[in-house]
Amino acid sequence: MSYEKPVSELERAFFMPVRIYSLLLGMKKALPALFLVTTLISCSQENHQKPLVLELPIPKSYEIPKTQNSISIDGIADEDSWANTLWSDFFIDIEGSKNPLPYYDTRVKMLWDDEFIYFYAELEEEHIWGDITERDAVIFHNNDFEVFIKPNQFQPYYAEFEVNALGTLWELFLARPYRRNGPVLNQWDVNGTQIGIDIQGTLNDPSDIDKGWNIEMAIPIQAIKDIDRGSKIEEGSLWRVNFSRVQWRHQINNGVYSRKEDSNGSLLHENNWVWTEQSAIAMHRPEHWGYVFFSSESNTNESRGYQDELDVEQQLLFYLYRKQLDWNSEKKIFSSNISDFGGPDFLVNSESLTASITLTKLGFEITVSNTKNQSITINQDGYIITH
Fold first, then answer.
1. Model's pTM, two decimal places?
2. Three-class SS state of 268
3. What pLDDT digit, counting tens, does each position of 352-375 carry?
């Protein structure tokens, strides 16, 4: 039985002129052209088959236990529930390992019950100061601690809470990240939020060296559920969470602390320290926030190390998403060709993935697929579906 290999459209386009040329001049004269075309096809197929190799950081995860006893929000974690809860890793620079480790240590613990999600942060600090007392002011103009919560990783909205050493609070609701011009609701207040501050030293006194300050927060779970209607918090529920510590270098004038200025009177840049890296000086990239899994267990001294099934796929998805937004910013159009961003084939953290782009009336959709026939798609505003 004879077998004829199917001819692809690419091969047909290349070989048809060669066949005509052979009939006119004879096969002998056509052989060099045939060799050239065959080489071109081979090189083209070889280049197409080489995936773009990427190493993308995967966010950290934390299993958050459910407390069985009440928590007093006083800044002192002396309850048994806190004692039986794991610390996070110490914070790192917001850009990751490319920058030195922070010169002060910061770490957090988390708990939850049916009413609140609790955060306890321990911040090493030699000079504890703050002067912002008005709620919803720009708290990060002081040294502060910030909590970012995204209750639905497939939707673009999220909440932000900022606190300084005086316990002054600023809450924000963002319908989508700043990069997509998301409206920011500064008037969004969670009045049931409780804050406790414990100063290990003296506040606003430059005459001594302090040890640090601790923050205890209780944020009503219902307020977070309200921005993700229909959601439930139960065993295995997942939120995306990250923390930021904004740390300014200081100066002292007439016994008063303020942010340090250079010789020209310009403020020196702040430090940004986080739990899980953002790979840029930008906290409003929720794709880099950590995975927080709710557990019904009351003791997590041995974390089960939860990991999202499509975490690598999501990181490639947002890598391409950011590339698309950058392309649009420069060229004022969206690209319809995944090859503009190195695709369609990728090898990400040793996983083989493919990607495609479709333009829509409102913008675009990017889809990433794995070898298990699982796909994940994002649109221009950050809405995600899996299929």
1. 0.86
2. coil
3. 999 999 999 999 999 999 999 999
